[in-house]
Amino acid sequence: MSDIIRLLPDSVANQIAAGEVIQRPASVLKELVENSIDAGAKEIHILITDAGRTCVQVIDDGKGMSETDARISFERHATSKIRDAADLFALTTMGFRGEALASIAAVAQVDLKTRREDDELGTIISVAGSKVERQETVSCPKGSNFSVKNLFFNVPVRRKFLKSNQTELSNILTEFERIVLVHPEIAFTLHSNDAELFNLPVSSLRQRIINVFGKKINQQLLNVNVDTSLIKISGYISKADSSRKKGAHQYFFVNGRYMRHPYFHKAVMEAYEKLIPAGEQISYFLYFDVEPGDIDVNIHPTKTEIKFENEVPIWQILAAAVKESLGKFNEVPSIDFDMEGMPDIPAYNGAAPIQPPKLNFNPNFNPFQKIPSSSYSRPDNDWEKLYSGLEQKSHYAEPDYELEVIEYPAFQEEEPEPEQATLYDEEPVSEKSSLQFQFKGRFILTSVKSGLMLIDQHRAHIRVLFDRYLQQIRTRQGVTQGVLFPEIVELPPSETVVLQEISEDLSAIGFDLSDLGGGSYAINGVPTGIEGLSPVQLIRNMVHTAMEKGCDVKDEVHNALALTLAKAAAIVYGQVLNSDEMTRLVDSLFACATPNFTPDGKTILSVLKEEDIERLFK
């Protein structure tokens, strides 16, 4: 038999590697910008066309490459940052595996212009599908200029599964934010289809956060700074009163690299325990400095999951640092004794005799003694003069009766007590009765043919409102209620592109938004029936819901938007309902196609069968 195992061609191996490293245009941006940072760039310019489908261009003023380095940089496992295996445990750079450029060149058309500072001329090299098409000498500025065109041009299946332009651009901006937040010493610009989205000069870390997420966040930041022999933690956390259900900006960085770490996230959130409502999140920007040998950054292709050698002690240090910052800036609630109106407490003097307090009371007062009405003396106060003359000017007729004091007779056992109102009538409730009762401000009890039905009023209203809002989105028949004073919602660019994508759906529900520029929108109208709710928070929640679902999946986005608004507008637990309101809610619930469950699968009603009730009394 012939041998069947063969080595893959380099082009195929590079495409397989690209499947791990290059997932979307945002992955290209990340790899190219990290290479620019490692090259010592002080200015990095990014130009995006069609959300990266057509072109992703990164220009830097780094040290550049020679003609030989430019050619070999597109080979797999070609890197300037590792010489032996020991270097893997002392990494201080961003990219190190030498797969990024080879992977990009395997699935795109790449043009590179580069020149070192000491060279008079630079090099231009073009690679498409892992094949070098040309390499020439050219005049160009110092640094590198990468232009990645037609991503996945030779892998149509991968290109087919790219999301909409708004979704891909949002992913690009999210990746961009993770990079610029850790390098405030580098100036960045980002243009999308010739429109400038970011222009970030060199600044301090706090100012870089403000430039990315807006001026409003400046009032929410609390400084965190702790330095131990194991780890140094710095950065900012937000105040407890700035918590939100969705859209919190949460960033961990270790040695200049963004990471996800649920274990450390729990340490931060436990410090806010009992300071924020359950289910809400806070923003934080925390930077860890540890010895490179104490972490492993090579456990995931995108290098966003990092393994720490000393996770437990770092968890304790992090939790203590956050609590210390909250306490230092008086974010932890404390008891404030207001002394205004309190009696003066004299200082203790042992030589002075102790004087017992004096009590003023009438020893002849008998609370059971009847006092005739004529014995009450009317105090001679001047307040009666204020009402003089009102008898003539009053437009209301005087009553033709005199008020009298009703004296109740003493309790007699033979007299029956007055009848008390009870939940149950003398006759049992008929099966067709529409009578409902509210229990504990949460459940509606009503009689059905098989027994007793319990309905969760909050979930029932969610079901009703969800169907209503979803129908409005699909038919574009939402009713808008204008507001007297429009509120302003400010969003970062990564959220602005999502809002633009779902703007028609928001308009269909009933929102009226006007673009003020710079990521600011005026809310001129809101859907009817959401009085008392914050339209700004609703907009933010729906934008982040759309980001989670992906803007191009229309049905899922419609369902998510309708559910978000329904949950916010539904009646809350503890709200007292009268009989008519309960009847309307129950009737509306059973008019829905699926009254048994909420849109997210929670039980709305349950029936206690008649035989089960009878069994309780045996």
Give the key terms.
about 625 residues; alpha+beta; Ribosomal Protein S5, domain 2; Ribosomal Protein S8, Chain: A, domain 1; 17 helices; about 30% helix; DNA mismatch repair protein MutL; DNA damage; DNA_mismatch_S5_2-like; DNA repair; MutL_C_sf
Tell me what you see in this structure:
The chain has 618 residues and is of the alpha+beta class. It folds into 3 domains: 10-200, Heat Shock Protein 90 (2-Layer Sandwich), CATH 3.30.565; 205-328, Ribosomal Protein S5, domain 2; 455-590, 2-Layer Sandwich (Ribosomal Protein S8, Chain: A, domain 1), CATH 3.30.1370. Helix content is 30%, strand content 21%. The protein has 17 helices and 22 strands. The chain has helices at 10-21, 25-38, 67-72, 100-107, 156-160, 165-180, 205-213, 262-271, 311-328, 390-393, 457-475, 493-501, 503-509, 535-549, 554-569, 579-590, 610-615, and strands at 43-49, 55-60, 109-115, 122-128, 131-138, 143-149, 187-192, 195-200, 221-227, 232-238, 250-254, 257-259, 284-289, 295-296, 307-308, 436-439, 443-448, 451-456, 480-490, 512-517, 520-527, 605-609. The strands form 5 sheets. The protein has an 8-stranded mixed β-sheet with strand order 5-4-3-6-2-1-7-8. A 5-stranded mixed β-sheet has the order 9-10-13-11-12, covered by helices on one side. Strands 16-17-18-22 form a 4-stranded antiparallel β-sheet. Helix 11 packs across helix 16 (579-590). The longest helix has 19 residues, at 457-475. It is globular and about 115 Å long.
